[in-house]
Specification:
- By secondary structure, the protein is of the alpha+beta class.
- It is built from 4 helices and 5 strands; from the N terminus they run E-H-E-E-E-H-E-H-H.
- The protein has one domain.
- It has a 5-stranded mixed beta sheet.
- The chain is elongated, with a radius of gyration of 19 Å.
- The termini are far apart.
- It binds zinc ion.
- Zinc ion binds near residues 49, 51, 112 and 116.
Length: about 150
């Protein structure tokens, strides 16, 4: 288990860091002797719904299969279904890998599955947040009026 607070780059895109990522992973070696890390990430990420600006949970349930390589050059030689994990000379950080995977699987914008606004767009209530993000639908509205 990794607390979300340990993943600062991911936390930038969340409304809170209450929560954890469940990581199951197993190292093995494939037929060619490459080190392979296979596993599954499961997390409920607190994100903002861009329609009603309320908090919601985005469930991530993401399998991964990474192959450790030493360099970008080596990464290019991997079969297509392998995802390279360039470790280089640096110590490998599982947290960074998990963060990278979650950033890739988290959609850029999130919406509640149900119609959460009753047709009304509520103002942002979270005063800590920077200027309220523009609702993409408002942009469309203003274009239509021109
Ligand atoms: Zn919503």
């Amino acid at each position: 288990m990794l607390p979300l607070s340990a993943l600062p780059r991911l936390a930038d895109r969340l409304v809170s860091t209450d929560g954890q990522v469940q990581v199951t992973a197993q190292f093995d070696r494939d037929e060619s002797g490459r080190y392979r890390l296979q596993g599954q990430l499961v997390a409920a990420l607190p994100v903002r719904c861009e329609r009603c600006l309320g908090a919601m949970q985005r469930t991530i349930d993401q399998p991964f299969c990474l192959v450790a390589v030493w360099s970008e050059e080596e990464a290019k030689q991997l079969p297509d279904d392998y995802e390279p994990w360039v470790t280089g000379e640096e110590p490998v950080s599982l947290a960074e890998m998990v963060e990278e995977e979650l950033l890739l699987s988290l959609p850029l914008v999130n919406y509640h599955d149900t119609d959460c606004t009753d047709g009304v767009v509520k103002p942002a209530t979270d005063e800590r947040s920077a200027p309220p993000r523009q609702n993409p639908f408002q942009v469309l509205e203003s274009l239509r009026k021109k």
